[in-house]
Design a protein that fits this description.
Layout (H helix, E strand, L loop, with lengths): L1 E6 L7 H12 L3 E6 L19 H11 L4 E5 L5 H14 L5 E4 L1 H5 L1 H4 L5 E3 L4 H13 L9 E5 L2 E4 L22 E5 L2 E4 L2 H8 E3 L9 E7 L2 E2 L9 H9 L8 E2 L2 H14 L5 E4 L9 H14 L4 E4 L7 H10 L1 E9 L3 H7 L6 H13 L3 E8 L6 H11 L7 E6 L7 H8 L6 H6 L12 H10 L12 H8 L2 H7 L2 H27 L1
Parallel strand pairs: 1-2, 1-3, 2-8, 3-4, 4-5, 11-14, 14-15, 15-16, 16-17, 17-18
Antiparallel strand pairs: 5-6, 6-7, 8-9, 10-11, 12-13
Helix pairs in contact: 1-6, 9-10, 10-11, 14-17
């Protein structure tokens, strides 16, 4: 079968989709991938939502689809609008071409998704999607294919997912083939040559304290699944989907296979200068695995890399081993410093003292740290937000703070909690169109300003304990009453930000004199 996969997101690397494509191809099917991002490559600020594409792009898309037996779209919720427009175009131009939706959005809202496509693949797609293609190729009944949702005789047929793949080492490496990868551009769809490949992998080097202007980032996963099941995360959705299957959700590849995959990436893309290990918690494994990975990585890859971790999995021995192999950054989630929010709303284990201990350990090892915080949680009180602001003053500096606006992703436990609480009125506007990496400064602007600045070196309470008192005063009830208003976001925030930027540029100049 000839499959054209369309990815309407800005994530050109799309690790999961590339793994799916390789698996399908290894079973004898032919695949193309067409990436249709809504922002120019190399840009990191999400533009305004733009559903449609230029006519020239659709015309070029038609040329690829004319030779296809199946069209597949894989995307996350924030790009639902683009997927909807593309799917409508396909059904208008090729009414007999089956359109299959997959990915975390379709998995969370399979019935809703069937309004726009013919078939939904819910859950981990390799085995289920391959069986669908096999049956189509043989002209057999597809209505009982695992993972698949579809209409039959006017009603929805939903099939349970195939068991999750347990032996990840048996899966082929992700698909990279410039002859069958394409990118939408203003005047059509172009093959992804090396220049476009570079643009799709560029990342601001300063984010990871790298010396060059840009980093060309490769990435991989040594595992699938997560040891935790926070209510807002896609792993929570997958836990709900597979909870009756009895299979192990957290599965890990061997260290040798992971490093061999990275060596293949280096061979195909020698310009790659940085590696991101995207596991939810790379350190959540035995020290022996960490030691084996680090030795192989140092020998065969030798590039700086980052990983994600949690305080429960961090030890000095693991960090020292990884740093010797090239670790330069560790990302950990704070999300909220409120015990109630973490326990009752996010349902995640968070110990403030344990987090600080792990953060100090990483800092003392000379490894950069990045912390994640969730904004715009309607279940969170102002007092709990202030608790997070003051806690950020305590984390070791310097560090990077990544702020995310809470999105009720469909199918997660958090989504159902918000539904039950009446917090979702318009799903398209409040969820599908939401940019969760945007700081919406019109909402509680002063609190957000403090949140983003509390993690800066201005409030390094380890070296300057007196700044703790300043932060408490700035986050006091009178200060919040006076400043946490819309005018702060529209007038004072831009002025203060401009002043901070001017000072940061002036300080290096003074040092060089």
């Amino acid at each position: 079968m000839r499959v054209v996969f369309i990815n309407p997101t800005n994530y050109i690397y799309s690790y999961g989709l590339r793994c799916l494509v390789s698996y399908i191809e290894s079973r004898g099917h032919s695949v193309k991938i067409i990436f249709m991002p809504i922002a120019p490559l190399g840009e990191y600020v999400r533009p305004q939502i733009r559903y449609n594409y230029p006519a020239a792009v659709y015309k070029a898309l038609d040329e690829h689809l004319a030779e296809a037996d199946v069209a597949g779209l894989s995307f996350v919720t924030n790009f639902f609008g683009q997927a909807r427009f593309i799917s409508k175009h396909i059904k208008d131009r090729f009414p007999n071409l089956p359109v299959v939706w997959g990915g975390i959005h379709a998995t969370g809202l399979p019935e809703k998704s069937l309004e726009y496509c013919d078939i939904v693949c819910a859950g981990e797609g390799e085995t289920g999607f391959t069986e669908l293609l096999d049956r189509m190729d043989r002209g057999e009944d597809i209505s009982t294919c695992p993972n698949m949702w579809m209409y039959r005789n006017g009603r929805i047929v939903s099939n349970p997912p195939a068991p999750m793949i347990q032996d990840l080492d048996a899966c082929p490496f992700p698909f990279f083939d410039s002859s069958r990868e394409f990118l939408s551009v203003q005047d059509g769809i172009a093959p992804i040559d090396e220049d476009l490949r570079r643009l799709s992998m560029v990342f601001p080097a300063e984010y990871f304290k790298l010396p060059s202007e840009n980093a060309y980032m490769g990435m991989t996963l040594s595992s699938r699944g997560c040891p935790y099941h926070c209510t807002y995360c896609c792993n929570n959705l997958l836990l709900l989907l597979y909870r009756d299957g009895g299979a192990k959700l957290l599965r890990r590849r061997s260290a040798a296979v992971v490093v061999d995959e990275l060596a293949e990436i280096k061979r195909k893309m020698p310009f790659v200068s940085f590696i991101a290990l995207m596991d939810d918690d790379f350190c959540a494994t035995r020290t022996g695995y960490i030691r084996e990975f680090a030795a192989l990585y140092k020998e065969k890859i030798g590039l700086p890399f980052k990983c994600n971790a949690t305080p429960a999995s961090v030890t000095r021995e693991k960090i020292d081993i990884l740093k010797d192999a090239g670790l330069i950054s560790v990302e950990m989630g704070i999300q909220s410093a409120s015990e109630r929010i973490n326990r009752e709303i996010y349902k995640r284990r968070f110990d403030k003292e344990k987090f600080l201990s792990a953060a100090r350990l990483i800092h003392q090892a000379g490894v950069n740290t990045c912390y994640d915080v969730i904004l715009d949680n309607p279940f969170e009180t102002v007092a709990e937000k202030v608790e997070t602001i003051r806690y950020l003053g305590e984390v070791p500096k310097p560090c990077i703070l990544s702020c995310f606006s809470l999105t009720f992703f469909p199918g997660t436990e958090m989504y159902h909690m918000a539904k039950d609480a009446g917090l979702i009125q318009d799903e398209e506007e409040e969820i599908f169109n939401k940019k969760n990496i945007t700081v919406y400064i019109e909402k509680e602007p002063y609190i957000k300003f403090l949140m983003m600045n509390a993690a800066s070196t201005r409030f390094d309470t380890d070296r300057r304990p007196w700044t703790r008192g300043i932060l408490r005063a700035l986050s006091s009830k009178p200060a919040l009453f006076l400043l946490n208003r819309r005018y702060f976001g529209s007038i004072l925030w831009p002025l203060l930000s401009a002043f901070q930027e001017a000072v940061s540029k002036l300080m290096p100049a003074k040092k060089s004199l």
